[in-house]
Write a structure and sequence with these properties.
The chain is α/β, with parallel strands linked by helices. It folds into two domains: 120 residues, Rossmann fold (3-Layer(aba) Sandwich); 103 residues, Rossmann fold, CATH 3.40.50. The protein contains eleven helices and eleven strands. The strands form three sheets. Strands 3-2-1-4-5-6-9 form a seven-stranded parallel beta sheet, sandwiched between helices. Strand 4, helix 3 and strand 5 form a beta-alpha-beta unit. Helix 1 packs across helix 6, helix 7 packs parallel to helix 11 and helix 8 packs across helix 9. The longest helix has 14 residues. The radius of gyration is 19 Å and the shape is elongated. The N and C termini lie far apart (43 Å).
Amino acid sequence: MAILVTGATGNVGRLVVDELLRAGAPVVRALTVNPARAALPEGVEVAKGYVGRPESLDGVFDGIDTVYLAPVPAVAREVAVLARDAGVRRLVTLTGGPGTEWYGIEADVEASGLECTHLEPGEFMSNATIWAEQIRTTGRVVGAYPTAANAPIALEDIAAVAARALLDESHSGRTYELTGPELLTHPQIVHEIGRVLGRDVPFVEAPREEAEEALSRVMGEYAGWYLDGRAAFVDRPQLPTTAVADVLGRPATTFAQWAEKNAGLFR
């Protein structure tokens, strides 16, 4: 089986490459814009191109059975057709649930007739690093919507599920809503960060405008978009699913475990 990982230097794609190698995948081809700088592991076939520019994909799919498709909604339909015409049989897509900007990817790639597995992850645990500067410089986090709750997921769990789906055809035709194992508010997440740092890190509720100003220093124009998403979780929290455990046969990573591993990001 030959597998192509698009977006192979992205935050999920790079981890998918590692998971496939650990699983002993016989052929792993990694698509990257700059092969010389990608520093991909030995044994990986490196191809130059970007999934968001279909004109750069000539020959990339040759000899490939299954593709991990990074989320670029504008070209998903076109890329799926290119893959199909080159002989690819299956796609594993990183998408988003209804209401997200990535949701249309699913229908677009299925229109190609290829077998598909769709992964719909919730918020990444690594998004907590948006507070790293605040924690380092002020010792606290200023935010809004303290009762909003969701179930953030570790990138490593997403990659592990993706690799399993790429290697096992029995996941074809499935859509997995991927979350972490627990429902958490931002005050609870900030508390866990403080715990691993060995000190109290308070979450200070502030008016929306003040919270957006604080986030904009890190997120720029996306600060408002992010807070709009948090506001939606006040009355409709994103509940945990068991998809990670169901696919991998092990529990999903908790935020406490993630924080222990990544405490250095906040020091």
